[in-house]
Every structure is written in structure tokens, then in C-alpha cells.
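Risk mitigation, structural track. In case the binding assays with xanthosine-5'-monophosphate fail to produce interpretable data, a predicted complex structure has been prepared as a fallback.
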Amino acid sequence: MSTSAHTAHQSILIVDFGSQVTQLIARRVREAGVYCEIAPYSQAEAAFARLRPRGIILSGSPASVCDADSPRAPQALFDSGLPILGICYGQQVMSAQLGGVVEATHIGGEGGEFGRAFLTVTRDCALFDGLWQVGERHQVWMSHGDKVTRFAPGFAIVATSDGAPFAVIADEERRYYGTQFHPEVVHTPDGARLIANFVHKVCGITGDWSMAGYRASKIADIRAQVGDGRVICGLSGGVDSSVAAILIHEAIGDQLTCVFVDHGLLRMHEREQVEQLFRDHYNIPLIVVDASDRFLAGLAGVTDPEAKRKFIGGEFINVFDEQARAIGGADFLAQGTLYPDVIESVSFTGGPSVTIKSHHNVGGLPARMRMALVEPLRELFKDEVRALGRELGLNDQFVGRHPFPGPGLAIRIPGEVTREKCDILRKADAIYLDEIRQAGLYDAIWQAFAVLLPVKTVGVMGDARTYDHVCALRAVTSVDGMTADIYPFDAAFLSRVATRIINEVPGINRVVYDYTSKPPGTIEWE
Ligand code: XMP
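Fallback model:
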């Protein structure tokens, strides 16, 4: 990972023990204007040496400190004399490593707490500064089976709850703090401010992490990395690859060439929008390849979702490779890789996870192309990429666009994909999104799209019988696409969209709404 730009920052190291919500700790630290990185506990010592942080946060974990092989924090962190905040397992492991006692309680058994809890502040401490007073009760979010039963020498209890007498412990002299609850989740209403207190007041970091600063430092990094080499960037029309391309162009100008592959599976006017943005607005060299014939020909007769995905991914790389050769090759490949893809999560489940879908992006690196990677967004979360996009002059409408999968409409047309079906779906999808925008709901929804079902049903329009496709509408809310809830449109809205689609899109005579959350469903239908 390129860190040259960030080692100059005052930063925080987050040691990951495998909690589901470790990334949220990083979000909260960055929201406090402070750069941070997450390192798995097994690599924390190396990350510590490289990053030279001003403070350390130990994450939660599905593991139990009481189990023989449970993970520990490197001793070097305790020897560093830096402030440490231990969260849940982090509190327990710190206690255990510094001479306290942690005991296991079983789920549902005495002492475990799951969900909302209330604690009472018993002493002042730097974490609570300007926030919580002695005697007050505050809502927090707990999720623990084990608990500290005797704290390590030097610590004192500063807040307590019914299930966790040691809800917050502190050793103010060494600047060690431990919370049994999770301050990083939104169900701990003051959690973000507690974390801000840790990084600002305890660690003494002022907070110099801003998108303007990131932009400037990344431009310097890109120039240093690329020199006078040539960079090629595959654009998908999505936010990530677009922001990466614009940033790189700002750094190296016309040494960058962008390639946009129109596979015929795009949304309405998507190709024109990308052309307009890149060529007309930013003046970035752009090659647009109309490859729809070969993609649609290759998809003829293919109905299996994985076969569709694999074909599209492979063909994408073929087209991209041809274009790279046509411009005489390039030394670097630019990708919009984000931080969540880079973080090496700690897995306690063991073994490879099941492949639900073979995801592919423009970024799926063609190994034979042997280009070095330029990935200027590797340290950013999605909302930070959006902020950087705004910083680079992209408008809100563009940076706020819903995600769109690499295989495009092909995975929204169960069964065989044809040009005719794509045309029908594009129209229905455009009407649906238009109504969502008009209702002012676009930004409240993570992703909304129409699906064209391989089912025909009978209808009646005027006096005539119709026999046409069913269109399903999908809209979900989500934080990261990993889990999702359906968006609860009101009936009037849905009926307005259904009426418009049936009236305006020949080929569709019935509209249904998908009420499936994720899990058990996935967001896309294939
Ligand atoms: P699923 O359907 O797996 O989707 O619940 C989760 C999120 O990922 C997007 N998605 C993809 N994005 N290439 C992508 O770039 C893909 O192959 C792909 N498949 C799904 C999906 O749109 C949703 O936002």
C-alpha cells in the first residue's frame, strides 16, 4: 500500500481481531478528521512500524479471550507508550495481557449482554470530556459473552452497567481505555464523540485528514509513481473509476487514456453521459468501444447466471486488452479499488467462503497485460470517494449515483439476454428512476432498478388481449451492499410507476415489487 503521503499525517492504527464492525471504527476516526489504517492483529506490529501512529485502537472479535488460541495484541504496542483504546474484545484482551482477569459467560447466560444497554458514569475520564458527567446514564450498544472480572493494575472503573460492571475502565496515567460496549456503531448515540475524544484529546491529534489534502498528496504520489509513463484506465461510468480517472488526469494530464467499453448492457443514456463528462467537461482522452454486437452474440443462448458473468468478465478483458494494444500499450493500469477491498479481514470461520456470485469489475486485472497498478482510492471508503469527487468538481447527481454492476443489465434479465429485452428493460428502468428522482427519494435509496422476467402473462389493454413480460422493481437501502433492506415505497408511488411502465413500455404488461431483504436474497437477481 502506498503510504508515503500519509506517514506524514498523525494517524491511528486499528488492530483488527475480526469484528464485523471494525470498519466502522475506521469510519468514525476518519470522520473525526484523522487518518487511520486497519491491520489484522497478526500484521499489527509491521503496520505499527510503517505507519508510526499516535494512538492505537483494538477492535472487537468473535473470539473469546478465554480460549487457548485466541488472538493477542503485539506486546510492542503496549511497550510503545502510546494511548490505547480497547473496544469489547479489545478491552478484554488488553486486560488479560496487562494482568487482569476475563471470564467467559455463555450467550443467554448470566453476564452476557446483547443489544441496547445503559451505563452509569462513575468517574470523570478523558474519554468523557465535555460529553458525559458523573452520575449520568447513557445508552450504549453491547455485544459480549465474556467480561472483565478483575481489571489490570493501574485501571479504574469509570462507568458501569448492570451486565458489565466494568463497562468502561481507564488507566489515565498510561492513557489506556477500555469499553465493553461498541462506540463505533450508531446504536451508541455518543459513540462517535467518544472516539473523537480519544483521537483528539487523549492522542492529541488535531485532525488534518481532509479531501483537499488527500487530493494534493495523491497527485504528488501519482506523479512520483508514473513519471513519464502511460496509464490506461477502464471506465465503467460508475463513481469509483470516474473519480480515479479524473484525479489521475489532474496529476499527469494526457499520459492517461480512458477506455469505456459499451457492452450493450448499459442503462439508458449511460454511454452518452460518460462521453459528455470525460470528453466535453474534463477534456480527458477517451476511447469508446461499441462492443455490443460481440457481447450480445456471445450471450446468445446463455441462461446460467454464472456463465453470463464469466463470459462478460472475460470478454471485457479481451476488448480492453485490444484497446491497450491499439494505443501502443501502457505502463500502468488505473483502477478505482477502494479501502474495503484492500482491508485484509481476519476470518475466524476458516476455509474459503462460498462463491455466491463471481463479481467482476472493469478492474479485474488481466494478468497477461503485466501493467503496474495505479490505485489512488485504495485508502478511501465509498463516501470519501464521493467527497473526493465533489472536491474534483463532479456534481452531486453524478457522485451520488447508485452502484451499477459490471455485467450490467445481463444479470437483470434472468434467462437469455437479447438486444430487444435490453431495450425494453432500459425503458422501464429509466421510468422507474425518473419517478424516484421526482419523488425526491433517490438519495435515500442505495440502489433501485428494474428487472425483466422471463415470464409472460396475460393482460388487457383497451379491448385487446396482451401477452407480455413481467417487470419486477427492486429498491434497497444498505450501508455497504453486504446486507440490505427493501425500500418501503408507498402504494401510490408504486402504482404510479407501474402505470407508467405498462403504458409507456411496449413489451411489459405487468409490474411487481420485490420484497426480499438481503439476506436471504441478494440485491441483484442473478
Ligand atoms: P448482490 O447481488 O451480490 O450485490 O447482493 C451486492 C452489490 O454488488 C453489486 N454487484 C456487482 N458489482 N460487479 C460489480 O461491480 C459485479 O459483478 C456485481 N455483481 C453485483 C450489486 O449491484 C450490489 O450493489
